[in-house]
Amino acid sequence: MDKKIAKKGLAWQKILLYTAIAAVAGYFITTIYKDAGTSRLNVETDRLLIDTVQNGIFQEFIPVTGVVQPIKTVFIDAVEGGRVEEKFVEDGAMVQKGKSILRLSNPDLQLTYLNQEADIVRQINQLRTNSIMMEQQSLNLKEQYLEAEYRIDLLDSRTKRNKELSEAGALDRVTYEETQDEFEHLLRRKKMLTKTIERDSMFQVLQAEQMESSLDLMKRNLAITRQSLDNLIVKAPIGGQLSGLDTELGELISEGENIAQIDDLSNFKILTRIDEFYISRIFINQKGSFIFAGKTYELIIKKIYPQVSNGAFEVDMVFTGTVPEGIKRGQTVSIKLELSAEQEALLLARGSFYQKTGGNWVYMIEEGTSSARKVNIKVGKQNPNFYEVLEGLKPGDVVITSSYDNFGDKDVLELK
User: What's the mean pLDDT in 362-384?
Assistant: First the structure.
């Protein structure tokens, strides 16, 4: 008789195998579902540049180039034209203020001065002659006045006596009337002389003032001509180094022609060119700095030239402290020009990625993986070293900062 055999349960090994298969299948299903629609690209890491986002001090600035120039330059022009007769100094010499540089000759100017001087002498002589004549005329009028007064006194007494004699019948009336008429005539003459003397005095004063004014004008003209003669000696307007003096003896110099220039080397300024893009953000007293011989020197903008040429404008920057020893005119320096104050910010190193993304997204390496995923970000200000990160990243995030041109528009980069 056959014996019935009972079925045994599944071996534990099979149960473990089925469980593992189910887990793997679940993982792949989850991964496939998660990455559905995600584009990927395998990338070699040997040419990638990365940076770790971190908090730090951010300041917006731009690098600009400046040329060292003397703090002051004065151009020397010929105020008067003439022939070079003598050179007192040579080009490149250090001169003091008032030092003679050239002596010019101008015969026409010298002749003009002599003629004006002769005219003044004649005017002075004429003034003296007129003064003497007016004084004589005044004396004559006063003498006539005194004579009229004297005769009036005599006729006054005589008229009174003749009146008494005429009334007594001892003198005929005709003689009395003649004496009376002569007396009245002298009174009228005295009155007229008084007015004449007054007018003569006023006329003398007016004529003297006119002649003095004319003489003063001639003297001023002579002084101007004398100054023109003095200008034939070309002198240094300031102390400094003379340059550009290339005239020779016997050379004719035209009026207004540039002869040379003097540079004040007691201090320096830096003429700086700035891209016109920043013209609205540049102001007087804006700060900058540069490194010379291992030391940092501070500058401020002293003057802004508004003219734009070849896409740039210029500013004068001066030192706020000590001037570097050994710095020379014409030397080129690289200046860090500040556009904002220092502030705490989240920083990301500058890189070529910005040309592709415009700062709107980056590839961030996911922590603990070899994948870099596209992440949307927002950047604010920037300087030559960093971008200011406003949104999308946090301290410690690792970002690919090299160029994205070869990545197309992939969502994930698999780093190999």
Answer: 91
Radius of gyration of the chain (CA): 53
Closest CA to 99 of 107, 109, 89: 89
**In whole angstroms, what is the distance from residue 341 CA to residue 287 CA?**
10
**Which 3 state secondary structure label does DSSP give 392?**
coil
State the sign of the Cα–Cα–Cα–Cα dihedral 213, 216, 217, 218.
positive
Compute CA 262 distance to the chain's CA centroid, rounded to the nearest angstrom: 18
Torsion, Cα 192 195 197 198, to 10 degrees, reads 180
Query: Coil, strand, or helix at residue 309?
Result: strand
Instruction: Give the integer Cα–Cα distance in Å for 165 and 161.
Output: 6
Give CA–CA dist 137/369, Å, rounded. Answer: 124
* pLDDT tens track for 137-146: 888 878 888 8
Write the CA distances from 303 to 269, 273, 338, 406, integer angstroms: 10, 12, 16, 47
The answer to whether the beta carbons of residues 236 and 262 sit under 8 Å apart is yes
Q: What are phi and psi of 326, to 5 degrees?
A: 90, -5
pTM above 0.85, yes or no: no
Q: What is the pLDDT of residue 268?
A: 93
> DSSP per residue over 100-121, as a string?
EEEEEE-HHHHHHHHHHHHHHH
Reduced to 3 states, what is the DSSP secondary structure of residue 133? helix
- 43 has pLDDT over 60: yes
